[in-house]
Amino acid sequence: MVNAEEYLLEIPMWTKQKNSLEDVRAYLEAMGNPDRALKAVHVAGTNGKGSVCAFLTCALKEAGYRTGTFVSPHLEQVRERFLINGEMTDRESFERSFSTVLAVTERMVEQGKCHPTFFEFLFYMAMVLFREKQVDVVVLETGMGGRLDTTNVIELPLACVITSISLDHTQYLGDTISAIAAEKAGIIKARVPVIFDDGQPEASAVIEGRAYFLDAPRYPVGEDDFEIRGSLDDGTGFLMSARMRDGRNLDLAVPFEARYQARNAMLAVRTLEIIRGTGITADDGAVRRGIRATRWPGRMELAAPGLYLDGAHNPGGIAAFLEAVRDVTGRREKEPYLLFAAVADKDYRSMAEAICREIPWRGIGIARMKNSRGLDTEKLAGIFRDFADCPVWEYEDAGTALHEMRKAAGEQLLFCAGSLYLIGELRECNSSDGLSS
């Protein structure tokens, strides 16, 4: 019997190329077009996609809907990408959807089609699994970009959501905000409402233009749409007021210390408000309960006392991360330490410069990751030493790095960032060296 996880992780070694959307449709047709039986909210953007998906999922669950969510990447297990009502799908359902897609893949390859890429295979599995589970609504996160993304085969979503946009994957999506926004805006469909982050004028202009061309109703979300009103009593989140389209204010408790989550929560709230016209209705109570109950690992996550995990790995993500570090250290009156790692295809020098310029770190640790894309620790540490006014240490693995950096930080705060691969490895650490120590 084929081991699903092993097979999936070996796909990049033999897949020839990314399939076109026409080829993706051919694969789906061979599976009985499972996507056409599903109602979906389609989410793209550079930063915040996963958080918006998490807010939407929890609110829809609270409203009584059986919700299937497809997200990426995973931190520890591939099954994390397939959520039913916010929970990782069971192994039996995962294996069944894998077997279904594998059987179709073998037939299609025999007919001369290219083998699906890793992400394509997972997307097919999600569609099969969600159809089997008879979900009421799907929350669908793009992989990279939007226009050519595998998920963009979805033909008539309930709504399209575009989160904040910054420079990332520039070798594929373009090297300007406008170019990247054009790729993200590629998910917009004719006459389907689009809810988008209005914080970047260049991106907003592109999104507005594409939506206008397609006669898609437009709902920008900006700073005037919400207000942060203080911290939760236990210090693990904040209170915000969301301005609804009918002029009401909806008070929400957001369970994240990072204040940038207010914008992501507002994008989710506005989306839920807009799709009420499609028959998927989350009332104010469900929205409040859903936002309050939302959890999203690895995004400024308080994983243990004094330990924060954040997968920031591009300019926009790093800027939001640094803002959160300033806020958290200020409120807690503690000093910050950093554990960092990056993959080789990121603009790590610019990230290192910004990180060292913006925060008075007491110590910085550079970890070697298991992932083959990980940047050499000696090289990355050397770059940090060019900018840092504190000690910079190197570690040969994430577990050792976490153990030693937690000892160095003591009663202060340790922030871990730079790559979601690093965050996944840190979450896998055993209790003696890891998150519960």
Give the secondary structure arrangement, pairings included:
Elements: H1 4-10, H2 21-30, E1 40-44, H3 49-62, E2 67-70, E3 82-84, E4 87-88, H4 91-110, H5 118-132, E5 137-141, E6 159-162, H6 170-173, H7 177-184, E7 194-197, H8 201-213, E8 218-221, E9 226-231, E10 238-243, E11 249-254, H9 261-274, H10 284-293, E12 301-304, E13 307-309, H11 315-332, E14 336-340, H12 348-358, E15 363-367, H13 377-387, E16 392-395, H14 398-409, E17 413-417, H15 420-428
Parallel strand pairs: 1-5, 1-6, 2-5, 6-7, 7-8, 13-17, 14-15, 14-17, 15-16
Antiparallel strand pairs: 2-3, 3-4, 9-10, 10-11, 12-13
Helix pairs in contact: 3-9, 3-10, 4-5, 7-8, 11-12, 12-13
What is this structure, in a nutshell?
By secondary structure, this protein is of the alpha/beta class.
Number of helices: 15
Distance separating the two termini: 39 Å
> What's the pLDDT, averaged over the residues?
90
The fraction of residues in strands falls at 15-25%
Stretches with pLDDT under 50, minimum 5 residues: none
User: What would you call the shape?
Assistant: globular
Rg on CA atoms, Å: 21 Å
How many beta-strand segments?
17
Which percent range fits the helix content?
40-55%
Global structural class: alpha/beta
Q: Biggest sheet: strands, sense, closure?
A: 8 strands, mixed
Adjacency order of strands in the biggest sheet = 4-3-2-5-1-6-7-8
